[in-house]
Amino acid sequence: MGRVVLSVIVPIHNAEQTLNRCVDSMIAQTFTNYELILVKDGSTDSSASICSDYASRHSFIKVMNQEHSGVSAARNAGIRAAQGERLTFVDADDEVTPTFLSTFMEEDL
Question: Whole-prediction pTM value?
């Protein structure tokens, strides 16, 4: 695939109820040159196993762990790990359309 063009960072804290919907919507993207960085922020529910399961099945999904430090710290950790030329964020309770990333990449920022 070459260089990753876009990094999508998802901070996660106790999001087991919405996480599958969020990640499934990211997997369904029409734009494919991106990495999905799931930042587990000290979750005490099953979010960790959900993230690990997705990462084991999809090479473009990366999982990071940190002590619970809040959404800003989780986003910053994701930024530090990002390899894309551009960044965007999705929350763990978001469900995006299949063209979310392609539309984002068409924008002249």
Answer: 0.94
Query: Residue 75 and residue 92: Cα distance in Å, rounded?
Result: 12
Which run of H or of E encompasses 72?
helix 71-81
Instruction: Give the pLDDT of residue 107.
Output: 75
Is residue 66 a contact partner of residue 77, using CB atoms and an 8 Å limit? yes
Quick: pLDDT tens for 89-100.
999 999 999 999
Q: Closest Cα to residue 49, out of 38, 37, 35?
A: 38
**Pick from 104, 90, 86, 93: nearest CA to 30:** 104
Rounded-to-integer distance, Cα 83 and Cα 54, Å = 19
- The secondary structure of residue 30, as a DSSP letter, is S
Q: Which residues of 7-24 are buried (b: 16+ CB within 10 A; e: fewer)?
A: bbbbbbbbbbeebeebbe
